Amino acid sequence: MKLILTLAWRNLWRKKRRTLISVSSVLFAVILAISLMSLIEGTREQMIESLISNTTGHLQVQDALYHDEPSMDHSLEYGEEVKRALEKYSGRIEYTVPRIQGFCLASKEMGSRGVYTMGIVPEKEEKMNGLVSRLTEGEMFSDDDNFAVIAEGVASLLELSVGDTIVLIGQGFQGVTAAGKYRVGGIVEFPLPEQNNTMVFLPLKEAQWFFAAPDRLSSLLLMTENENTAAETALKLMNELDEEWYAVKTWEELMPDAVAALEARDAQVKIFAWVLYIVAGFGIFGTIITMIHERLREFGILLSIGLKRAQLSVICMLETIFMSFLGVIGGIAIGYPLMLWFNKNPIQLKDDLADVMLDMGFEPVMPFSVAPDIFIYQGITIFIISLVIGLYPARKVFRLDMVSAARK
To answer: Residue 150: helix, strand or coil by DSSP?
Structure first.
């Protein structure tokens, strides 16, 4: 067996150009597969990260009725029972983000617009979605301030600037009319039009006073240490809470339409991936066929001098394994730093493509993922395809007419 291994390895380098062409076909197939799957997985990660950081968090603690009927009357009483449950599982929870929110009518003089008024703790929001860093004018409030920070689109539509006054009218807890006048202290810019044209932020305490809901929250967002343990953490928290009054929802439960869209997209990706593998397989197969037909005379001579067909078949298979292995390792070695660079420097989309992405609710970039399973899975898949293709030379050897082949 050692002799056969030695022969197979030496055969590769007798014709270096032929070997490099074969290895390159596998290498480029791996790089192509890694690049496309990295882009697809990066886009998926971006979609989920955007939903989690801008909307839902990993988990939310809510009033039991809030999910089915999101109104201020079904706001969460943030009392000792909830705090004790969170304290018990503090090792699983990285931080919490309290919010109280509701729709209001915002106006300035004769102009008015429907807005989404949200009471927040700035430090928590900055940690979750970088809200403070989005300031373009003015300053962010602290917990004890009583001025508003508005989105750039709201400021433009109502012709507001820092120092102007915005009037908010809505409905508070138990039917109380929520009304207030607030100085605009800062303006933030969002990349997504839906947020940029609707958001008005108040300090949490001020918003609770505005909605006449002291010590209440619309929801308490939880960011877990590990995203993969979110569902398990939700179950553990519900065991500590009275399900008649409280509910703990994962982001998947809060956004079922988004989950359905992701599942449909994953099904499309699987079909696309198999098309890619078939194309890559035919490319490798074409290279192997060319290599075999160039060596028919060599095979005929080897069989004529006494080499058994089984031994020659094993040598051909080993050559294919060596070339496939070199191509896969080379593809991963080149693909990983390339994808890492694009991960750190995502491609910025412009013009119409950027508008399409913004309309869909996502930042106009092409993100790439460097998740380890992308490189492992693509490398193994292409390696297996190469091995299957490697059966062709073995089959060719068993059917070869050694006399006619030796005369070529």
So the answer is: strand
Burial class (CB in 10 A: 0-12, 13-18, 19+), 224: buried
Q: Judge whether 379 and 336 are in contact, CB under 8 Å.
A: no
Both tokens of 301, joined, read 């001579």
Task: Give the predicted TM-score (pTM) of the model.
Answer: 0.71
Share of the chain above pLDDT 90, in %: 21
Please identify, among 242, 272, 297, the residue that sits at the C-terminal boundary of a domain: 242
Q: What is the pLDDT of residues 352-370, one digit of tens each?
A: 766 766 666 566 777 888 8
Cα separation, 232 vs 246, in Å, equals 17
Task: Report the residue count for the chain.
Answer: 408
Are 360 and 313 in the same domain?
A: yes
Domain that holds residue 40: 2-52+258-406
**Beta strand segments in 210-321, E:** 216-217, 219-224, 246-250
Instruction: Render pLDDT for 224-240 as a digit per residue (tens, 0 to 9).
Output: 887 778 888 888 888 88
Q: Is residue 249 part of a domain?
A: no
